[in-house]
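Feature request, filed as a ticket because there's no other form

It would be nice if the structure record came with a short human-readable summary line next to the tokens. Right now we just get the raw output. Example of a typical job, pasted below so the devs can see what we mean:
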Amino acid sequence: MKITKDNKNNTSVSKNTSALLKKENLVVNNNSTILILNNRVEIAAYAFKFIGLVGISFLLLIFNVLSSYYGFVSYNNLDNSSKEFELFSLLVSIVMIIVPSMVFMFFYSKLREVSKGLLSLGNPEKVIAVILIFVGVTAQLFSTFMTYETLFYKKFSNYIENEIAKNKEYVKKRKEFLAKYETSILESIKELDSRINENNKRIKLANDEHIKLDYTFKTNKENLLKEIERADADNARLKLEKSYKLKELENNKSEVVSFDLKNLRLGGLYVLGGTSTVIPSDDIHNIIFCWCLFLLSLMLDIFLSVSFCVLRNTIGEFLLYYRSNYNGKCGKNKESLTSSFKTKPTIKDFNDIPTEVYNAVKVISKNLEKDNKTIKSINTIHNSTKMSIHEIRKMLQLLFDYGFSYKGQKRFILNVDATLAYIKNFDGNRIDQTLRSEFRKAFSNLAD
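Raw output as currently delivered:
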């Protein structure tokens, strides 16, 4: 009878153990399912964010390129330009849009990776940085002005067309007047040539008679010489008058040619300088509006550069997320991720931890949420510590790789047990005791 009772007890214990195992397996499966779903949701969020940023950047890029191109064409009055020049203008517009965005994105990444910024660069690097900044700013100003010219033309196209029509009417009337004036000048020159020819005939005739007369006819010879002198003087006067007429004719032709090359100052840049023929300098309202258009053009270029920087930052965050969830030492597959979500990872040997991890633990432990275990976002840590994004990501990766943190549903969670054990078993032979005391003081909030 006693044996039967023991068998019942064993059977009861076995059932309880089996129930506990089933419950534990159910919890593990639930946690695994939750983690996989969270990962899928985060990946989908990154994908939607990436697609949205790519779309915004692409639209801004196309808009800025086309605006710069049309602004360049309208500013230079190249309506009848060749296809080769139009292609050249389009290529120049693309370069002037891409170059500043790439330069600013490069410096943005460098400033996030280097905590001291440009001051930490050497002299050759500083010279190169100054050159790149100059090139970027120059290209930025060019694209901004050309975009502004496009917006200006779209807004004041009626004013510009009216000004062009007035100018064409003026040019037409002026050319008609100059054509008549040119005809008058040519007739005057023709008349002068005729009179000069007559004087030349008089001179020749008087000279021939002077030669034929005997020297005894002194009075007649003197009269002939005076006639020759008067004809020469008249010719000199007529030739001088003819030279004046020729200069007038040349100036007249130059004025006719200048109408085809004349710049009417139709561009929006002249409005900002107060010398436009479209908007008078006393039209304050339209001038202020043009300055607003210029600021809008500048903001469009800045938005394009910012979108590129945000896109690059998003790609970097996704790569960090991917490495943390799929390539880390504590989570190379879904099983290790599940176990790290269910139970906090442990560290086998503190002596195997490299020195770089010490500072990472110290910095991250000071940047926790109110629950003293959830690590703050990268941007929050960056703003509070003034450290570069690159350094913060490296620290988070080290903590994750060596078991001092694990992935929660949305944030990294500090492995408080491992951190406290690490402090307790701190290797004083490798790090002095002063630093050990600083660690204990810094981590005192973790014991709460």
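Something like this underneath would help us a lot:
The beta strands are 405-407, 412-414.
The CA atoms of residues 149 and 231 lie 64 Å apart.
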